[in-house]
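re the bet — no i am not wrong, look at it urself. input seq straight from the record:
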Amino acid sequence: MSTNFYFNNFTNSQEQILIEDLVLESIQIYGHDVFYCPRTLIEKDEVYEEDSLSQYNSNYLIDMYIRSYESYEGDGQFLSKFGLEIRDQVTFTVAIRTFERHVTRVNQNKIRPRENDIIWLPLNQKMYRITYVEHESVFYQSGSLQVYDIKCELMEYSNERFDTGRYDIDHYFDNVSTTSTFVSTLENLANTDPIAQNFEFEKLADDILDFSDVDPFSENISIQDS
């Protein structure tokens, strides 16, 4: 038996627009202004699906709702074999129409938020990396989708380049960056990180490796003629 065509709630575009308008207004009332910074790929590795030279060259002011209103999600702070790790996570909600208005209209390649883009939250001066974008968090209310749920975690810096035009974003990681001229040598890097053992490692490596094609693990190579 088919559904009653007199009460088909999933083809009424006016109702869908009304719900979308209410969602937009709710986010504008209870949300926060954040800066969305898309990642620009420079030299993508097709094998590992990563780009160690990625850059962030633009920012978009956009309103989002913080769904994690009680506290951070995720594993929090814990001690691992690499030391103290902070894995705080947060979920932002952005209206699809709002994202298209502020981002897609300017950059047509950005039709939705993407993983590894970043969000700068001026409220607590923190930077978050997008780990997953859920587009069906509100499951087809009246037959349409209104929002994206953006799951993020505190960004772990890996020498990404920032040139967004906003000072607090571009210089946020200056104290840990190793791409400037001040830390371009092992000596300067040792001064930046006093507990590093770069010189010790380099000295040990010189006694072990010579990177020859025949025998990379020995510096005394003798080849007999056949």
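see?? The longest strand covers residues 83-95. told u. also Strands lie at 32-37, 55-56, 60-66, 73-80, 83-95, 118-121, 126-134, 147-154, 161-162. so pay up
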